Amino acid sequence: MGHCAGDREQGRTMRESSGDRHIDNVAAATDGEAEALERLVRGIQPELYRLAVRFFGDPRDAEDATQEALVQVVTRLDRFNGESAFSTWVYRVATNKFLSLARSQGERRALSLAEFDEELSRVPSTPAEATSAHVADRLLLEEVKIGCTLAMLLCLDRGHRMAYILGEIMELDHATGAAILDISAAAFRKRLQRSRTRITDLMRARCGLIDRRNACRCRLRVPVAVERGCVDPHDLVFASSKEQARQFPEVLREIRRLEEADRAGALYRSHPDTRSTVDLATFVHKLFDPGTSAATGSAPTR
């Protein structure tokens, strides 16, 4: 189903390719081959960055977190023993790093589910005149839609948020999700079910995308988001493709054909790919290659 299948395919691809696409580079990188290390980091960076964007709710925070996770993966590469898929091991290392980091600015600003529900209940009847010109911009609608749904994830505590991302959005099986979070499969199922219920209940009650009978509409929230500084019409951080924005109405029709319980996950999977604006792979390569003068440990500039 268009973009809704993106993460399903991504999850399958990463699991299936862990024994083929990455494993040779893992062995060579462990033996000290710098080029293999860079290939490896470049191969896993997109998946980890995408996970970080969802977890922290902000691409800029995600870049910093992904950088730290990649460094963690590289420094522990010799500990990978092949008992699990390489992708599972990578996600576990990265997830542990994400969970150990200080709360991001987005997390500190996050509302509770009850507060978010109250916020969405206050729907403007018409767009404010000063910003009504922006409403026709499909990219602005995309920006508000993606930003709003990611903000919903931030309403969950870290443990439930990560379980929801792994199990519901990325559709990893319970055994893999449990291995990544280092909990039992039963505990993962319970955590996933609780988070799924909380997100689904909120969207079912308020979101016009999930249920057309709800009053909340992205076009009505654009002026509010712009006025509050949550969205800068001249510097969009999530919406990057006009073509994807143009296709979303058809994607939404497909989402609404699903069972209600499946719509929220499909909506998250419909988000466009967010790509890092910095070359983290080259940075990590330089950081760990003693033959380069750039191995100073300083972060790449944006």
Protein described:
- The protein is mainly α and 302 residues long.
- It has two domains: 1-108 and 272-302, Rna Polymerase Sigma Factor, Chain: A; 110-271, no CATH class.
- Helices cover 63% and strands 0% of the residues.
- It has helices at residues 6-17, 23-30, 34-56, 59-75, 86-100, 105-109, 113-121, 138-153, 158-169, 174-181, 185-206, 218-227, 242-256, 260-269, 280-288.
- The longest helix is centred in the N-terminal third of the chain and has 23 residues, at 34-56.
- The protein starts with 5 loop residues before the first helix and ends in a 14-residue tail after the last helix.
Question: Which features characterize this protein?
Answer:
302 residues; mainly alpha; Rna Polymerase Sigma Factor, Chain: A; 2 domains; 15 helices; disordered N terminus; RNA_pol_sigma-70-like
Order of helices and strands: HHHHHHHHHHHHHHH
Largest sheet: none
The low-pLDDT segments are 1-19, 128-135, 293-298
- Beta-strand content estimate: under 5%
Mean pLDDT score: 85
> How many separate domains make up the residues?
2
Number of strands: 0
- The span between the termini is 34 Å
Percent of residues in helices: 55-70%
Oligomer: single chain
Number of helices: 15
Shape: globular
Radius of gyration: 20 Å
Class by helix and strand content?
mainly alpha
Write a brief caption for the model.
The protein has 302 residues and is mainly alpha-helical. The protein has 15 helices and no strands.
Topology:
Elements lengths: L5 H12 L5 H8 L3 H23 L2 H17 L10 H15 L4 H5 L3 H9 L16 H16 L4 H12 L4 H8 L3 H22 L11 H10 L14 H15 L3 H10 L10 H9 L14
Keywords: Sigma factor, Transcription, Transcription regulation
GO molecular function, one term: sigma factor activity
Protein name: RNA polymerase sigma factor
